[in-house]
Amino acid sequence: MTVIVRDVRPGSAEDAEAFARIRRAALPYMIATGPQVTYDLAHAHPDARNRPLLAEVDGEAVGTAEVSLAHESPEPGTGCVNIFVHPGHVGLGAGSLLLRAAEEHLAEAGATNLYSWVLDGPSHLAFAAKHGYRPSRSAYFLRLDLATAGLPPLQAPPAGVELRTAADFAADPRPLFELDALATADEPGDVAAELTDYAHWLASIWEHPLLDRELTTVAVADGRPVAFSAARTDGLGRYGSAMTGTHPEYRGRGLAKLVKNDSLHRARAAGCTEAFTGNDAENGPMLAVNKWFGYEICAKETRHVRTLGRGR
What residues make up the domain containing 19? Predict the structure, then answer.
């Protein structure tokens, strides 16, 4: 048995499909497709030093690593590495080899603190601890059966608020970028992010193949977008909430519920049968919103961190 780690080949549909297949098997709560992997690799920001990796056992792809610098973080030296091994091929050493290659790459790129999401299973947590990673904050994956869920009835928006879709902003999406930047700035998490590069946002988010503009609902008030619920779909009946955010000046008015409910109804009408989302464990308001819709927690993951240079 031979285990090797190699780079995902840019433009290789075979590698991209293998990467997505492993992600779906190891983390079925997030949408992953081959075209998405290809697109993400082609449009990664150069400052991210992005380097996706594949682990192979006797020529068969069994593990992946997402490896990059958190280039949108105001704190320099922050690296991110997420390891996924196909459940049918654990215990063969693929995860350790992937992590070693990822850490070497990030150290060379100048990272000092490495963050990694780890599923809350005994073997996953033990792997992280063995390699010197200590737990930080947690988050939940949630699932909603759209085929049978009794969604709250659609409600008319309050006076002065109009519901539109992201498709309505195709000619000029900058107002959505500005709202996304505001919502992202205070998103709960241990790695802060600042969206300042409009051109990169257009390429990596607005033009992303999974973004469904027709199912992404936007609330407009006072002539500008003030709340949104971004939708991603894979064409196979799966719908994912990429982000639900509200302008700070318009919070507390129920707009997050309004736009997400509209988006979910649109998704079901379009034939989506499963809806997934994720929430930071400390984001009580959004957890309450999702519980109101009928989402149920299906998994938990914990962010782990390791400072390079410290012993294992």
Answer: 3-111
